[in-house]
Design goal:
Blueprint (H helix, E strand, L loop, with lengths): L3 E4 H31 L7 H26 E4 L15 E6 L5 E7 L10 E3 L3 H6 L7 E6 L2 E11 L2
Parallel strand pairs: 1-2, 4-5
Antiparallel strand pairs: 3-4, 3-7, 6-7
Length: 158
């Protein structure tokens, strides 16, 4: 099985979700199924069908998270020493060449990516263009609106 890179913070979020699913959501849906069963005829019981669907979703998500955590390679960005190069977990401040706009991104795993929070997926076009580069280097990214050029201003590991 291939390993999946994930930051320490991302792994903690998955563990928290798994704990919530097992300790809160699973018992709640089991209770809802029991209550729906107590109402009698299951063939026309919408509450029972909805609870069973919810149970299927919860069990599937538990399996998915457990699989990801088993295959995870947890990386703590604060312990990295990549010599100023952009690597998984690095936080990168970029200057967009045409507008001069500064943006900051952290390169993270697929499950923790959230562009609104500045977390970009390792397999995204911009992350792929940045990997291996250093401060002062230029990166070209093929965006839907055309090619964008970024200068790497600062690379940090936090």
């Amino acid at each position: 099985m291939a390993t999946i890179p994930i930051t320490r913070k991302g792994a903690e979020k998955l563990k928290e979700e798994l704990h919530r699913l097992k300790t809160l959501d699973r018992p709640a849906v089991i209770q809802a199924i029991a209550e729906a069963r107590a109402q009698g005829d299951l063939s026309e019981n919408a509450e029972y069908d909805a609870a069973k669907d919810r149970q299927g979703f919860i069990e599937g998500r538990i399996q998915e998270i457990e699989g990801k955590l088993a295959a995870a390679q947890v990386i703590d960005p604060s312990t990295l020493d990549a010599g100023g190069r952009v690597v998984f977990g690095a936080t990168v401040e970029l200057e967009e060449q045409s507008s001069g706009e500064l943006v900051t991104y952290q390169i993270v795993g697929e499950d923790e990516a959230d562009l609104k929070l500045g977390l970009i997926n390792i397999s995204s076009p911009i992350a792929r263009a940045l990997i291996g580069k250093e401060e002062g280097d230029l990166a070209e990214v093929q965006a839907p609106g055309g090619v964008k050029r970024y200068e790497i201003v600062v690379v940090t590991y936090r």
